[in-house]
# Entry
Amino acid sequence: MKSSLRKKLLTKRKYIENRLEAERSIVEQVTKTFSFKNDDIIAGYLQIKSEASIAPLFTALHHQKHACCMPIVIEKNTPLSFRLWSPQDNNKTGHYNIPEPPTENEAVTPNILFVPLVGFDRQGNRLGYGGGFYDRTLKMLRQKKDILAIGVGFSSQEVDKLPINKHDEQLDFIATEKEVIKCV
Ligand SMILES: Nc1ncnc2c1ncn2[C@@H]1O[C@H](COP(=O)(O)OP(=O)(O)OP(=O)(O)O)[C@@H](O)[C@H]1O
Ligand SMILES: [Mg+2]
# Structure
């Protein structure tokens, strides 16, 4: 059930109209809704496939002196790790061809996470690529500290109700080009 929906939503995401405009609006929605504290450690993602790019958001956060980090895939069935990131870094290519910060950058534990989406519903359920990486990561982090998980996607990735399993971790907010949804 998840896999057919994933396929359908990935196709939709590939053909987003006015993508650049929509990505700009997502960043605007985030910027006007959230303000971050000095000691927040904020995780983004380095866009792959047809994910919404949030690069300008992270460049701005970095210039505002916020600690920004990006995820690293260690291996299958294992939570993601994070390393500090700045816009001038030479990102390297990690597992699954995903860009990641250079190895010498310090490993950190984020408390705010921007999470890419394949699909979502208003309850905060999320569909990813099917590796369970963010489910494992959010579960692990939530056992350690207060975590704010903000899904990032296009409004057309919304479905009425996603099929969910026990291991699925929910998002606290979802930012689209139209709005920031507070999940209940
Ligand atoms: N905390 C966990 N413990 C054990 N298995 C888990 C855990 N979280 C996820 N899984 C496993 O990971 C697999 C993929 O999960 P799911 O289909 O929810 O992926 P997803 O949320 O779309 O992926 P991702 O989080 O990587 O974007 C499932 O087979 C599930 O059993
Ligand atoms: Mg899941």
